[in-house]
């Protein structure tokens, strides 16, 4: 009989064999089960204790420590954040606080007049009703393209027609020999114009200037993209050079004055910002006929939320470059906004061109009457306080109304005459009135800009507070 080698593998015990052993030795199996259960319980207890004390696995520990730190930090900072939101204005050029766009909740509420939010027009459009309403079907305006035969291929024909109609009615600008370019507000058109007027191969960036006090957003918007094509160069009256882009805002934001270009050079370019050249703010003395003119729905009709503006541009090549900028920037402009704006502009023109029996809603009459009342109240309050001053505006013949009318700017450019007050914005802030400091407009902080376009309850509360301020 052959001898079995010790090197050969021993046969594995069968399952039945294991079962027989378990039956013969049950105590061993129970001991192993009990030991395993105790071990598992001890591990779980240790893990729970470590989590309770702030420990755990490295990932959980790091995440929990961050949450704990954030919670502790928020508890400490909460009172300061609330105070800042209610009492302070950010040093940023355009600041948004918890009071922006809101009605005052009480007599002691903060009044935010930092922005030119044109909510005073809400009551007019509420009364207007259906002529200003629009319904856009779900299938309409889905394509990128509006009119490919037009140089500005994303311009809705209906909006373009109403723009030309309105300018012809008011007589504030010549539109017939200009290309119309639509933009997302006049800010985008301003950027597009800078791009179009700046030579791409110039040895240094084009200087962008404007006479003080200039619109506070001009420096910020010009330098926002840190473009190599152009750069902000400050006060136009202090500029020394031949190549430049001069920004002319007329009527001027912030002081309401009528402006003209002050620089003259064959290499200089000019952009005319005519956002406020409408009959509710100033007499229409002539039809503007400049190379580039910017307008916006927000200040002409009060629809700031529509975010729409338009440019009238003479030169075709400049118009092409502006269109290219908008094409690359936003691939056109919202058709929904254009269709709504077309309906709004149509309602404005109809108010003057249709017989009075069909409509008595005249936007420019409403705006001019309301602003004239507000300016009378503000001037009386300033005179009574004896610590502030305002610019004077002469009467002028308005070709739109055919009458001698006053100037009622969208903003009050107010100066603190009190000797011990160097920071007029800070002075008003102490009285829960938020304004915009003159330093944002290139002048001393004794000046502030105050919006005249807010709702009635906000404006009336503002006047009440001014009347309480005196020597």
Automatic annotation (TrEMBL):
Membrane-crossing segments per the record: 29-52
Pfam family, one: Alliinase_C
Cofactor: pyridoxal 5'-phosphate
Keyword Membrane in annotation: yes
GO biological process: amino acid metabolic process
Listed SUPFAM superfamilies: PLP-dependent transferases
Keywords from the named record: Membrane, Pyridoxal phosphate, Transmembrane, Transmembrane helix
A GO molecular-function descriptor: transaminase activity
Domain Alliinase C-terminal: 111-466
Region annotation (Disordered) ranges: 1-20
InterPro entries cross-referenced by the UniProt entry: Alliinase_C, Alliinase_N_sf, Ethylene_sulfur-biosynth, PyrdxlP-dep_Trfase, PyrdxlP-dep_Trfase_major, PyrdxlP-dep_Trfase_small
UniProt similarity note: Belongs to the alliinase family.
Protein name: Allinase
Organism, scientific name: Musa troglodytarum
């Amino acid at each position: 009989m052959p001898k079995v080698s010790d090197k050969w593998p021993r046969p594995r015990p069968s399952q039945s064999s294991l079962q027989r052993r378990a039956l013969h030795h049950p105590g061993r199996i129970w001991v192993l089960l009990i030991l395993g259960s105790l071990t598992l319980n001890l591990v779980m207890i240790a893990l729970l204790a470590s989590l309770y004390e702030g420990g755990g696995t490295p990932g959980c520990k790091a995440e929990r420590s961050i949450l704990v730190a954030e919670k502790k930090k928020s508890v400490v900072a909460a009172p300061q954040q609330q105070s800042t939101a209610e009492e302070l204005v950010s040093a940023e050029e355009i600041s948004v606080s918890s009071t922006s766009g809101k009605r005052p909740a009480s007599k002691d509420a903060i009044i935010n007049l930092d922005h030119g939010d044109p909510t005073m027009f809400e009551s007019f459009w509420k009364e207007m009703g259906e002529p200003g309403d629009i319904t856009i079907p779900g299938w309409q305006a889905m394509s990128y393209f509006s009119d490919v035969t037009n140089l500005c291929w994303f311009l809705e024909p209906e909006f373009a027609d109403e723009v030309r109609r309105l300018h012809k009615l008011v007589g504030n600008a010549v539109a017939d020999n200009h290309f119309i370019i639509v933009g997302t507000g006049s800010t985008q058109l301003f950027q597009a114009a800078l791009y179009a007027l700046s030579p791409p191969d110039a040895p240094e960036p084009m200087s962008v200037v404007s006479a003080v006090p200039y619109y506070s957003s001009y420096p910020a918007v010009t330098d926002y993209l840190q473009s190599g094509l152009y750069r902000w160069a400050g006060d136009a009256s202090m500029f020394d050079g031949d190549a430049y882009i001069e920004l002319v805002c007329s009527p001027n934001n912030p002081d309401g004055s009528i402006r003209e270009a002050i620089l003259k050079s064959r290499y200089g370019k000019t952009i005319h910002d005519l956002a406020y050249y409408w009959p509710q703010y100033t007499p229409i003395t002539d039809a503007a006929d400049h190379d580039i003119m910017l307008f916006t729905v927000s200040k002409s009709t009060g629809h700031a939320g529509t975010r729409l503006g338009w440019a009238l541009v003479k030169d075709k090549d400049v118009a092409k470059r502006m269109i290219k900028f908008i094409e690359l920037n936003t691939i056109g402009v919202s058709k929904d906004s254009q269709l709504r704006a077309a309906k709004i502009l149509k309602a404005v023109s109809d108010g003057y061109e249709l017989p009075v029996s069909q409509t008595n809603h005249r936007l420019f009459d409403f705006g001019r009457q309301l602003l004239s009342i507000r300016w009378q109240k503000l001037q009386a309050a300033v005179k009574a306080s004896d610590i502030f001053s305002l610019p004077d505006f002469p009467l002028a013949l308005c070709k739109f109304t055919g009458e001698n009318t006053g100037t009622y700017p969208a903003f009050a450019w107010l100066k603190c005459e009190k000797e011990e007050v160097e920071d007029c914005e800070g002075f008003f802030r102490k009285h829960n009135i938020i304004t915009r400091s003159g330093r944002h407009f290139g002048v001393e902080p004794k000046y502030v800009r105050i919006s005249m376009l807010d709702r009635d309850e906000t404006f009336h509360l503002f006047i009440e507070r001014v009347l309480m301020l005196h020597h």
